[in-house]
Amino acid sequence: MELNEGYSYLPQIWSDMVIFEHAVRESLVSKVLQIMVYALQMESVSPTSKLGESFAEIGWKIWEVIETQDPERVKKISWTGQMLGDLMIVSLKAEQIDKAYEILKKLMNSPHEILGVPGIDSLKLFLEVAIRENNAPLSLVSIFIPDTVHLPVYICTSRTCAVIAAFWI
User: Does the predicted model carry a pTM greater than 0.85?
Assistant: First the structure.
């Protein structure tokens, strides 16, 4: 899909995954998120296009599928840092800051449930969007992430941010 830029097929593939109950397979869900992020970052898909909006909808449906899993289910999908980071990028590119904030809250409040950490690109994009939107509380939230999450530490002025430390304890 990435080689032939067949991103327009992704909404249909997601629909088929839901119909045939493959939306609960971690490897497939993770790959869908990776492809969406790749397409958005390579600017093959505009976030404001119909396909870009479909990506945002798919991303949030993935969130809902994982967050509303039956606790009695034997094989549940576990969040990975990479999946949450990819989902955050998809949400931010679609200018859905409130959803990206929900994802960040999940990272901060449940680090013991998440395997790994999100990529620096997702956190950097979150911080850039918060600053661009002049949303100081979101900027501060992204700066003061608990030590247990093991993420880079940022220092910010009114318009710029820089990584000052990246301690991986």
Answer: no
DSSP label of 110: -
- How many Å apart are CA 47 and CA 54, to the nearest integer? 9
Burial class (CB in 10 A: 0-12, 13-18, 19+), 79: buried
Q: Where are the domains of the chain?
A: 7-165
Tokens of 26: 């971690």
pLDDT, one tens digit per residue, over 25-80 is: 999 999 999 999 999 999 888 998 999 999 999 999 999 999 999 888 888 899 99
**Kind plus residue range of the DSSP H or E element containing 137:** helix 136-143
User: 146: exposed, middle or buried (C-beta count within 10 Å: 0-12, 13-18, 19+)?
Assistant: exposed
Taking alpha carbons only, the member of 159, 84, 161 closest to residue 124 is: 161
